[in-house]
Write a structure and sequence with these properties.
single chain; disordered C terminus
């Protein structure tokens, strides 16, 4: 789905504006059909997440427009490792020196990806920095969602988050000077993206209250691989050998971090309460 942002000719912030308002209408419609409503308490709890969600989308879309898809998604793949480093004090998940070491290895892999792509026409330092901004915003959003979702239902939460994000992004898009023009053929791509992205984020919000943060973080590791291949096929973005090697190192290192954290969690369960 991420290659859609590059395929269409709509500027990044205009795309973010349209994606969020269309997503908001979808979520509000689902809320109405299911006879559920938003309370002020839910909106207040979800608002900080909405601000972060909007910031992430602005950074992420802008990065995709400026630099290679592989760069953006490999940087984003660091999110599980970054999550685990700060998850300990928030969710009681133990973080050891091994996790920190493997996280450093994953950072080395990202550096290899960036070095490999820096010689290609698609590379942009500004785009890579925006990808880092998206990573930070998304990680904080992820952790905050994990906390808030313990008390707020997924549908109401994601509706409030999307509407808040749309409100936050609106003045940014209007003041950016970017064109609010969408070609007729791009509307189909936009509709496809909104359907996939909004559905995916809603399922992710649901999983926060059902799945451990370590497990849910693992699910995103396939995204950079799929997106990089899609960018190669549909956009012709090259994948230098050093970038491929760095991507493999980064993804595998993050996978090791998550698997070690999961194993530690299982070992921490007292025998008398361990599942049979």
């Amino acid at each position: 789905m991420n290659v859609v942002v590059k395929i269409i000719h709509t500027p990044a912030l205009t795309f973010a504006f349209l994606r969020l308002w269309m997503g908001s209408m979808v979520m509000l419609g689902v809320l109405a059909v299911t006879h559920r409503r938003l309370s002020w308490s839910i909106v207040r709890r979800a608002a900080p997440s909405g601000v972060l969600f909007g910031a992430n989308i602005c950074f992420f879309f802008s990065a995709l427009k400026l630099t290679s898809v592989a760069d953006v998604l490999i940087v984003a793949a660091l999110q599980p490792a970054l999550t685990l480093l700060v998850a300990g004090p928030l969710f009681g998940e133990r973080v050891t020196g091994h996790e920190v070491a493997w996280t450093i290895v994953s950072l080395g892999g990202v550096v290899m990806v960036i070095l490999g792509s820096s010689g290609t026409p698609e590379w942009s330092l500004r785009g890579d920095l925006l990808a880092v901004g998206a990573l930070i915003a998304w990680t904080v959003y992820w952790l905050l969602s994990k906390h808030v979702r313990q008390a707020v239902p997924a549908l109401e939460y994601m509706t409030a988050v999307t509407v808040t994000a749309a409100l936050v992004v609106t003045p940014v898009a209007l003041l950016s000077g970017q064109r609010f023009i969408v070609r007729s053929q791009d509307w189909w791509w936009l509709l496809l993206f909104v359907a996939g992205a909004q559905g995916g984020h809603s399922l992710l919000a649901w999983s926060h209250a059902q799945v451990e943060v370590s497990i849910s973080a693992l699910l995103i590791l396939a995204e950079p691989v799929i997106s990089a291949v899609a960018a190669l096929v549909f956009l012709g973005e090259p994948l230098p050998a050093i970038s491929i090697a760095g991507g493999v190192i980064a993804v595998l290192a993050v996978g090791v971090v998550i698997q070690r954290a999961v194993r530690h969690d299982k070992e921490a369960v007292p025998p008398e309460v361990a599942p049979a």
